[in-house]
Amino acid sequence: MVFSSSTFLIIFLPLTILAYFLIGCLLTKNVTVKNSILLLASLIFYAWGEPVYIFLMLISICFNFVIGKDISASKDADKDKRAKLLFICAIIFNIGVLGFFKYSGFVADNLGNLLGVQIRMPELPLPVGISFYTFQIMSYIIDLYNDKIKVQKNILSFALYISLFPQLIAGPIVKYRDIEYQLRNRRESLSKYSEGMSRFVVGLSKKLLLANTLGSVYSAVQADDINDLSFLSAWVGIICYTLQIYFDFSGYSDMAIGLGKMFGFEFCENFRYPYMAFSVTDFWRRWHISLSSWFRDYVYIPLGGNRRKTPRVIFNLMIVWLLTGLWHGADWNFILWGVYYGVLLILEKYVLSKQLGKLPLALRRFITLVLVMCGWVLFSAPTLPDALNYLRVMFTGGIGFIDSDGLYLLTSNILLILLGAFCAVPIYKTLIRKVNRVTVSRVKAVACPVLLILCYVFMISETYNPFLYFRF
Amino acid sequence: MTNKKYLIAELLCVAALITFIVLICVSRSGGTDKKISDVAAPVVKTMANNQMTKKTNADAVKAFKLDLSLTDGVVYYANNNVMDVSELLIVKLKDKSDAHDLKGKVDLRVSEQKKLYKSYAPKQYSLLENSITEISGNVLFYCTAENAVSLFEKFKEAL
Fold this sequence. Notes:
By secondary structure, chain A is mainly alpha-helical. In chain A, about 75% of the residues lie in helices and about 0% in strands. Chain A folds into 2 domains: about 5-185, no CATH class; about 190-470, no CATH class. Chain A has helices at about 5-30, 30-50, 55-75, 80-115, 130-145, 155-165, 165-170, 175-185, 190-225, 230-260, 280-285, 290-300, 310-330, 330-350, 355-360, 360-380, 385-395, 405-425, 425-435, 435-460. Chain B has helices spanning about 5-30, 35-45, 55-65, 100-115, 120-130, 150-159; strands at about 55, 70-80, 85-95, 130-135, 140-145. The longest helix of chain B is centred in the first third of the chain and has 28 residues, at about 5-30. The interface of A and B includes residues 60, 93, 97 and 464 of A.
């Protein structure tokens, strides 16, 4: 089930809200009942689209719950070797499951090509959200082993942490330590509910009104033969994709955070105006923050982080970015995309930091944005040669710099692009600060229902349009 | 819980995982004994009115270069409008080892269609980009349509 579907908005969400607040908050006021209602809703939410793979998630939950308790019991009994062995087994289990379902086909294809034989793997669809919930599980196991958290003894709470529907299938990746307290003690309130609802509507609008519309422009550019593209068409296309992927993913995160808030949870922010970044390092502090911080906490720092000598730090950075690329998908363009960022960050850190520091802020922002857009070419192209061809057109001009198709594309979408750019930077926040609070709340009270109605209209008229980050 | 009980619970989970993986691989490669008409019926029912019309086996042979002697049944629907690329093909094969060759023929058809529609019909091209071709044992499903995902869901349920 997706948030931007009528099944979710008209049936699932109202019923869940009704059951949660009526039974969980008004009748029983018991956190176990509230958690049970949310867990049941989350399992239905997942099973709606994945009736088979829900068993995989349940097996994963049971295994990690038991092994977590076992690790904790072994540590309590001073059996450190056993705890370490169990920890390794848990990591192998989780990476093994993720690896089998996500990467086995890719590995088999490449191994087959290398050895000149055909290795056939069963063509299994990727379980939705597996990369997100596996990383959440691993954050629990790693923190538990490192004594950063206490073991979860209630399987309902543990299952809810893994399967909580707002963030189950496309993040943010919530670390157990950030939500542990909220699983047993959280407060719902009318103000939180209304804040969450507004955030949800904003996210839904980002997805349905902006991301999908911008996406159709990029699809039109992609549908053209690369050899018929001009410099202008290529840039208009990638600008639209740059905005699309931001509104698509940050829209989903807004919806997840908003839904969480409605049920009393506080999830970490996942985006902080990434296209305002003044360096690639800064970009990754603003884009998919939960993933970057996961890799920082569980890969980069354990490898030694930046406390080692330069060659080792470079090695650590490359490992992290190779894994970040791989996390996004089993394909060479994702790997190259990860390596691209690894190289850029290393250059920024060791070679260009002084020179970049002397440039005006606006120029640094512009350079960063262009580099990010080049990254999105690698990310969005169906194959590596397609990506390289697209980049060639972007920088050498293709059939020319400006053609009638490119001009038509630009003039017919300029308002959309400007609206997207306006919403992707914090200008409106600055404007809001200048107006008094009463006016802001009045505008919000009018804007949210209007946006919701618009979203319904768009939702009904559009065909199936999944979130871009679902495939990860 | 003692160490032994934990170990048993962990091993049971691993056994459940292995069983799940084996079952899902077998179900994906085993195909079906059902008649092609039974597999196709719920898929066809899900199609919107006049979305596509039923075509003959000869049409399928022409479009996909099928060898009918290798099949146990073919269901082919397409749109009558030449500017609409919507198509649905469900083929049950006598021998599942022929499935990959058949998939190759379908892929070829899709890439030829893409060449035709690229540059001047972006919506149709986008539909082709999002077409679904899946083999489930001895059955091949191919669909290019706006609701291809829901048609594919019905197909999976019908197997």
